[in-house]
Amino acid sequence: MNTKKIIEIVAILIAIVGVAYWFTVMRPTQQAREQALDTTQAIEQVVENTLSVAPETNPATAAVPAVNPLEKTNPFKNEYENPFK
What we know:
The protein is mostly helical. It has a domain at 1-47. The protein has helices at 3-26, 30-52, 69-72. The longest helix has 24 residues, at 3-26.
């Protein structure tokens, strides 16, 4: 036999063994699927419980008074009169 043919046959056999190994050993079992499903459901419950508590959107509304900055910036608003009016 030619060495090139032997290398091709060995490569094909390695590929077949790899595919067989994947489908027999590496495939997840039913127990692993159920465990993943339980974990997913637990995570969904935790997320739903945390998202149901909505924080106040602006906690500083009670602490900060409503002040118009344009009224407070000019201390001479009522005392200065424009002579050209």
